[in-house]
Design goal:
The complex is a heterodimer of chains A (213) and B (123). Chain A contains one helix and 13 strands, in the order βββαββββββββββ. Chain A is mainly beta and 213 residues long. Classes of the chains: A mainly beta (213), B mainly beta (123). The interface between A and B is medium-sized, with 37 and 30 residues.
Chain lengths: 213, 123
């Protein structure tokens, strides 16, 4: 069966994993997680302790009354804190920018269909009714993703609002199943709509759906 | 019990694996298939004969947030059988026994079919 590793680029998001593996951290899918935040003097790159709920709340991204606003920072919370020193957080470089390689999905073999990125409320993968997922309206999802396996996402890329099983991003650029081992890439961001009326702290699940024979 | 047993036109046979994460589908010899005996999840079986080609798909999800400690969750299994331009698909839902089996028919030029891995068609 094909297996997938999820990696984030913390050094230079213009470099691919195959050529610059040291630029990437493999995400421990049991213990690590992503933090989407505005950030502040405490919640930032290279923290020396795991951020507390209170610290995360204080560093939350504010909603703007004038314009849509992108959540400024994506941090990997690294449970093992053993990369480059004893750091619990690492900034995902290039997140939301015109960068091709911030998030990597590395497959070690062929798949039967094309892998896809999805977003759901929780691990049951049955609903997408949280604010960040558009309250059940897929096109209103604040999570925007773009497949960057073959190309840059573009300046101010709008991305696909991902929510549920129908609004997804195909990670092989629509080219179909993988014929062998391959690294796929995506850029992902969260955009808060202008003057959104419901402040919230929410978790959600990013999922990769893939197949083998 | 193996997931499937294949009988070839030369009357030799091939046993599939016992684990959906190692079905041995890709190891099926490149020979003409006469029939497939396929064990359906949770009991019962399918016996398929008279089709030209077969495909098998194990669909999984892998959450990126770390709350699913098993990491890889098998969502459903599909067995596809081609006769002419028609593809019959049996979908076995492993997460919801109330929707255990769905059957649909697609044309060979359907986008989903065209983007399947061609190397996994057998027969």
């Amino acid at each position: 069966m094909a297996e997938m590793k999820f990696l984030i680029n913390y050094v230079d998001s213009t470099h691919i994993y195959a050529s610059y593996p040291a630029n990437y951290i493999e995400v421990d899918l049991t213990n690590d997680y992503l933090i989407w935040t505005k950030g502040d003097d405490t919640v930032k790159d290279l923290m020396t302790h795991a951020p507390t709920p209170g610290e995360l709340n204080a560093a939350a991204q504010e909603i703007s009354e004038e314009e849509d606003i992108m959540v400024a920072l994506c941090l990997l919370m690294d449970y093992s804190h053993n990369v480059g020193g004893s750091y619990y957080t690492h900034k995902v470089l290039g997140m939301g920018e015109n960068k091709q390689y911030p998030f990597c999905f590395s497959f070690n073999g062929a798949t039967a269909t094309e892998p896809q990125l999805e977003a759901w409320d929780d691990i049951t993968h049955t609903t997408f009714v949280k604010n960040v997922l558009g309250l059940g309206v897929t096109l209103d999802s604040m999570i925007k993703a773009k497949c960057t396996t073959n190309t840059l996402p573009g300046v101010d890329w709008p991305g696909t609002p991902i929510a549920g099983g129908s609004n997804v991003v195909l990670l092989n650029d629509g080219a179909g199943a993988l014929s062998g081992a391959k690294d796929l890439y995506s850029n992902i961001k969260i955009v808060l709509p202008e003057d959104y009326t419901i402040p919230a702290v929410e978790s959600f699940i990013l999922t990769v759906r893939y197949t083998f024979s | 019990m193996s997931i499937f047993t294949i009988i070839f036109e030369d009357n030799t046979s091939f046993e599939g694996g016992i684990d959906y994460k190692n079905t041995k589908w890709v190891e099926i010899p490149d020979k003409k298939i006469k029939s497939i005996f396929y064990n359906i999840p949770f009991g019962d079986y399918l016996y398929l004969i008279g089709y030209e080609k077969y495909h098998h798909i194990v669909e999984v999800t892998q959450d990126l947030n770390g709350q699913n400690k098993d990491k890889i969750i098998i969502d459903n299994i599909r067995l596809l059988a081609r006769k002419g331009n028609k593809i019959k698909i049996w979908k076995f839902n492993l997460l919801d026994k109330n929707k255990l089996i769905e059957i649909e028919v697609k044309n060979f030029n359907d986008n989903f079919i065209q983007k399947l891995n061609p190397n996994f068609w057998k027969g």
